[in-house]
Amino acid sequence: MIKLQRLYILIPLILFSCTDDEPVNLKAATKVYFSTWFGTIGVVDLSIPNEFTSIANNANDGTASTVDVALDEAAGYIYVAEERDETSKILRKKIDGSGTIETLYNNTDGLTSTTAITLDITEHMIYWVNSGDGTIYRGSQDGLSIPTALFSGASVVQAAYGIRLDKKHGKVYVADIAKGILVGNMDGSGTLTTLYEDGTTGVDGASNLTLDIAARKIYWANQFGWSIAVGNMDGSSTPEILFNESDGVAQPSGIAFDKASRQIFWSEQYGSVIAKGKANGTGGREVILEDVQPLGIDLGF
User: Fold this and answer.
1) Residue 87 φ then ψ, to 5°
2) Would you say 23 and 259 are in contact if contact means Cβ atoms under 8 Å apart?
3) Alpha carbon distance 68, 18 (integer Å)
């Protein structure tokens, strides 16, 4: 097992991954990066649907069980979480596929069944989830720092395949298939609290999540419910199902939000596709890549 010129002042073009804090995406996403369980890390150019370019794969790079990805487009790296029980790894490789893949952290750094990853790009930090022991860690993007366990190293998750940051409010959000949608402090103080509990309305095996920080919305993929849902970031709303099996959704896994185009992108493990739809749920589901069994995804601009 997500650019502007006015008067006579030119504002420089800045590109962000959806894994960064609150990106001001002045340009809509042009690429979708993804991982598969079998070790493929690929990228889809949205102008050329249903084709992808391999960045890394099992045959050439030895990658396997690659469950999640996070992109630092400015630095030119894609970061990868391998879920391998006691031999889990955090890896990175150049997004153009050049060079060798680097191991940043492994089981000697406390990794065990590492299932989710995200980046704090401005602080050059990686956050990840160890579903093997229920812990959440952070370490530097160059792999040179000693990782820090958040929440006093306590077991706070069960099977979490999604993690995202809200730096503006100092929060970390987690999607846990067994528990639901959770939130805690980015600095690791306190513990995680449940915003939307698994088994309640709109939450059925939440496998990953993405944030619209400006609108204070969380979007998540329900792996067991075969649906894409949305709720408020403070947990105050009843979740709404945007897309489900009647739209063709089949066991969604990863999810990402494109602020500029107001679209959600998601992967479907059972459906073996990457799809997208409008963030308000109208207009139906559109498939952009088939026959890949994707898991984690992130957007490029």
Assistant:
1) -120, 30
2) yes
3) 13
Q: Where are the domains of the chain?
A: 20-300
Both tokens of 93, joined, read 């490789």
| Of 268, 297, 262, 257, residue with least CA distance to 282 | 262
Q: Which helix (H) or strand (E) holds 265?
A: strand 263-268
Amino acid in the structure at residue 14? I
Instruction: Return the bridge partners of 60, or none.
Output: none
Closest CA to 90 of 76, 80, 78: 80
Task: Write the burial class of residue 135 (CB in 10 Å: 0-12 exposed, 13-18 middle, 19+ buried).
Answer: buried
For the stretch 228-246, pLDDT in tens is 999 999 999 999 999 999 9
Q: Which residues of the chain register pLDDT less than 70?
A: 1-26
The DSSP result for 3-69, as a single string, is --EETTEEPPP----TTSSS---SS---EEEEEETTS-EEEEETTSTT--EEEE-HHHH---SEEEE
Angstrom distance (rounded) from CA 240 to CA 188: 30
Pairing mode, if any, of strands 114-120 and 102-105?
Answer: unpaired
pLDDT recorded at residue 86: 86
pLDDT of residue 85: 84
Contact 174, 219 (CB under 8 A): no
Distance CA 220, CA 217 (A): 10
What does pTM read for this prediction?
A: 0.92
DSSP 146-164: PPEESGGG----SSEEEEE
Answer for the pair 214, 22: CB distance below 8 angstroms, yes or no: yes
In residues, how long is the chain?
301
Rg of the chain (C-alpha set): 18
Predicted local confidence at residue 121, as pLDDT: 98
Domain 20-300 in CATH: superfamily?
Answer: TolB, C-terminal domain (2.120.10.30)
